[in-house]
Fold:
Amino acid sequence: MLIKNLSEFLGQEVEIRGWVYNLRSSGNIFFLQIRDGSGFAQAVVSKDSVPEQVWADCAKLSLESSIIIKGKVTQHPRQADVFELQATVLQIVQAAAEYPIGKKEHGPDFLMEYRHLWLRSPKQWAILRVRDAIMLAIEEFLHSADFVRVDSPIFTPNACEGTTTLFQVPYFDLGTAYLSQSGQLYLEAAIASVGRCYDFGPVFRAEKSKTKRHLTEFWMMDAEAAFVEHEENLQIQENLTRYIIRYCLTYCQKELAILERDTTKLAQVDAPFVRLNYKEAIAKLRQLGSDIKEGEDLGNDDEVLLTKDSPVPIFIEKWPANIKPFYMKRDAQNSELVLNSDLIATEGAGELIGGSQREDNYDSLLERLKAEGLKVEDYEWYLDLRRYGSVPHSGFGIGLERTVRWITGVEHVRECIPFPRTINRLKP
Ligand code: 4AD
Ligand code: MG
Structure:
């Protein structure tokens, strides 16, 4: 019996197993706020209708004690869609010690120290559930579009996204391993087997950024598809993004309400996305008052500014090759640009997806590797993919926590992953 199904048991005796997250008494009645993982409900214990022992136990209850409670399901006297339990039996599984997270306001550092307990609060519960829904939505969308899950390794011998943000791990007699920054390169191998594939897992960036959008360990879904070129790559990303929004608006109403998320703007995302090429984006930003110059990457403020009045996310495509990774394919119209895109979400959420068509020509790729100063021998296997049946192909990576942050409207990405890792947090 789960709290979420309480309404189906109106008038019946049920048993709920969970925790007391709040309690108050008024004379001969105890009101217990209980939760069992599936939802939240109130149990009413009246002195007159329970054995003396139950009443005595009730008085011993502390916040976050674990309990098994039995009683009859009734409708709330004033709220038609709220169901309660009129308790008859109460068993304390464990009487909790004094709970450190109280009703008073706690600072973020305190809450992060107690992350293992903070996860129980209704807002954190809601975020965990939205995160789960987003993962399901992504997987559902990809399978409906014929993508196969092919996970990539976390220990890797080489860099995918630049050598400056690599975490190093001593690796037996083989020297140094690097924690993966993205599984993309491995997916490029797997498309020649399954056509379209994706991975979904933790990736690592030793970024010294202390922003509200950066983690050192975050989850990414990389997707890759054979015979898909730049244009279609954008279309897939757009369809995926809309699918995620629609899915969450349909299945996470309760969670978004707990988070007090005004979903008006999210609902507007269900329309074609705006596209700007990099040059246009820079021009627009300068018009809006940014001091960004051509050839520079967008800062957080720029991303917020650019999307300020846009009801839909904005793709910025065709960036200068020299500020993007070696694997991106050059634009045939202008060889200084690459066939890539960053998707900037609405409501200040910033970059959500990075994607590109990949360099599929052996000579061009070799030249890029050398120009970037990467050790060619480390990438021989990757060059093999251009030696044996190379095809045009494209892919992208979506940051899970960035997506959770956008949809939940939570300010800081550290609340969008169960146990965040940032430059200054490794505990709990
Ligand atoms: O734009 P990025 O660096 O792209 C790649 O890694 C490609 N190899 C992906 C691909 O084509 N398969 O990262 C992709 C996304 C970003 O758009 C952002 O959402 C997220 O990953 N991201 C981060 N999220 C949290 N903390 C960080 N430090 C992040 N860095 C990137
Ligand atoms: Mg990026």
In short: The chain has a mean pLDDT of 96. Residues 115-416 form a domain with the BirA Bifunctional Protein; domain 2 fold (CATH 3.30.930.10). Residues 160-161, 181-182, 184, 205, 207, 214-215, 218, 220, 222, 351-355, 395-397, 399, 401-402, 413 surround 4AD (ligand 1) (CB under 6 Å).
